Amino acid sequence: MIDKKDNNLPKIDTEDSHASEHVKMSRRLFLGSSTAVAGAVGALGAGIGSVFSGSTMADTQNNGAGHHTIGPGELDEYYGFWSGGHQGEVRVLGVPSMRELMRIPVFNIDSATGWGLTNESKEILGDQLYQNGDCHHPHISLTDGRYDGKYLFINDKANTRVARIRLDIMKTDRIVHVPNVQAIHGLRLQKVPHTKYVFCNAEFLIPHPNDGSEFTLENSYTMFNAIDAETMEVAWQVIVDGNLDNMDADYTGKYAASTCYNSEKALDLAGTMRNERDWVVVFNIERIEAAVNAGNFKTIGDSKVPVVDGRKGSELTRYIPVPKNPHGLNTSPDGKYFIANGKLSPTCSIIATDRLDDLFDDKISERDPIIGEPELGLGPLHTTFDGRGNAYTTLFIDSQVVKWNIEDAIKHYQGEDVSYIRQKLDVHYQPGHNHASLTESRDADGKWMVVLSKFSKDRFLPVGPLHPENDQLIDISGDEMKLVHDGPTYAEPHDCILVRRDQIKTKKIWDPQDPFFASARKQAEKDGVELEFDNTVIRDGNKVRVYMTSVAPVFGLNEFKVKQGDEVTVYVSNREMVEDVTHGFCMVNHGVNMEISPQQTSSITFIASKPGVHWYYCSWFCHAMHMEMTGRMIVEKV
Ligand code: RUQ
Ligand code: CUA
Ligand code: CA
């Protein structure tokens, strides 16, 4: 272990040692001939056990080109948007530096910005004000198969929600709770002609209605969901057989496909592994829309969402059998293939999207769209692409990423004697998602790949029993993958998306007319208050509205007076015209804090339950006299 630590030091300008090269080669050979080990995968437990056995070899880090180093003051080429996992947020990183630029609170409560505390954020979070969320899949809206930089969408598995983030201000602006289902997991966007729909899978099977009158798994099912990307209303739902895991959409706008690992409808682990093949279910978007428009749907309970039946035998779906408990599903950037990752099978299944019309017209049989099933290694979870015909698949159990050539894998399946594996690279450790730059668009540029490893084990200074994960940056621009950076991350990013920096256009300061705080503006109008200028207190029964401006380093009000028990709403408008001068408003001992950026209005409501003097202060450093940016709330006893 001690020796290993030395090996982990960055070795930017040195050559690979012969020793580690040797180990790397022998390991590759071992894995190259290990395709008969499928049986060993049998139990998922075997994979977990190997966390600590498969990766204790010498460091196989390639000595990277080093051009991932971005100097102080230099800007990155890519934005990376990371899921924040069960922290419930989204993180913005610069790539290739892997510097964290910003956090965007989504489903979580954020002490710094007041997300979950302010009236503006509560309006977006809605009635379902849960305290937690579980983000997995961040995806950026597209127009004609290219990222358009408008929105980012992300799922909440924990509370069955989908959120939209406006990328011009990098704030969450809409959240929808998906009815009739439990646990939104896989989420992707319609790519063509544009992101009209956000597609998302509900993972778990539930009875309908789920009101305590029925508990059996036989009478439970789950649904595939489409959300209108502009209105953020659920447009329709499709009942399926089995469960749903991950998904992707095609480049015609006609099809979407999801993996199912629980075709068995089992409750126990062994049961979910009973079938040698589960399936990929393909959704025919045109036919589903036609069925909804023709009124061939039902609704469930109070929900008005049209529900169509896509179970086996339906015209709306097709079920393509694939081995075994498949997980990720990824569309190649040329639009030709859906690739389903086998998880308990050492294979990926290549589905030809140009055979789907025939499949739906019953001209071919259910396995005919499969045109390749390469053996890649143990525990394939997700695949990403370089736009040059190569695929990169994470191997969870092997702790590797395998680079393979898609056309050669297809030829091999047709009986040609070609090898399709290009390289296997150790990653540290147990990778889940991987993601190459621009890979979910036509513009996949094959420069960088992030591998999101679930375990960091010995890669960082120890921080107690809870370890960070490890997001590794890999240079894929050359023939060989080169590992160039380790990035510790907190609970649990799952997935990320990389876009070119010119594809995102952000505002430097807020538009004072922004809909984000339209309700505050409306209330001010009703009260005859001008947010830009006025500093005033409006009493409305036991509701008190306090309006104040903020210009560094003063609040418009040094003091305001309320009565014990009043419901107080404080509106602060930041009048700065200069970027980066954010103020905060923190009322001591009231659980009240919020961000107010230039030209923004923020508001927060609380009960003034404690008589006496209560200071408030600016909580975002704004000026040399920032400490002096304070005031007092006087609460009179009643
Ligand atoms: S899933 S580690 Cu939540 Cu994206 Cu595959
Ligand atoms: Cu205003 Cu600090
Ligand atoms: Ca299964």
TrEMBL record:
InterPro entries linked to this entry: CcO_II-like_C (IPR002429), Copper_CuA (IPR001505), Cupredoxin (IPR008972), N2O_reductase_N (IPR011045), N2OR_C (IPR034205), NO_Rdtase (IPR023644), Nos_propeller (IPR041114), NOS_propeller_2 (IPR041142)
The UniProt note on the cofactor reads as follows: Binds 6 Cu cations per subunit. Each subunit contains 2 copper centers; Cu(A) (binuclear) and Cu(Z) (tetranuclear). Cu(Z) is thought to be the site of nitrous oxide reduction. Binds 2 calcium ions per subunit.
Where, in this chain's numbering, is Cu cation Z1 bound? 327, 382
Q: Which UniProt keywords apply?
A: Calcium, Copper, Metal-binding, Oxidoreductase, Periplasm, Signal
Q: Where does Cu cation A2 bind?
A: 618, 620, 622, 626
Q: Which GO terms describe its cellular component?
A: membrane; periplasmic space
Residues involved in Cu cation Z2 binding: 136, 185
Residues that hold Cu cation Z3 according to the record: 137, 433
* Catalytic activity as recorded in UniProt: N2 + 2 Fe(III)-[cytochrome c] + H2O = nitrous oxide + 2 Fe(II)-[cytochrome c] + 2 H(+)
Where it mainly occurs, coarsely classed, is: periplasm
Which residues of this UniProt protein bind Cu cation Z4? Answer: 494
From the UniProt record, list the coiled-coil ranges: none
A molecular function (GO) held by this record is:
copper ion binding
* Cofactor requirements of the protein: Cu cation; Ca(2+)
List the subcellular locations.
Answer: Periplasm
A Gene Ontology biological process in which this protein takes part is:
denitrification pathway
Instruction: Describe the processing and modification events after translation.
Output: Predicted to be exported by the Tat system. The position of the signal peptide cleavage has not been experimentally proven.
PROSITE patterns to which the protein is assigned, alphabetical: COX2, COX2_CUA, TAT
How does this chain assemble?
A: Homodimer.
Protein's name according to its UniProt entry = Nitrous-oxide reductase
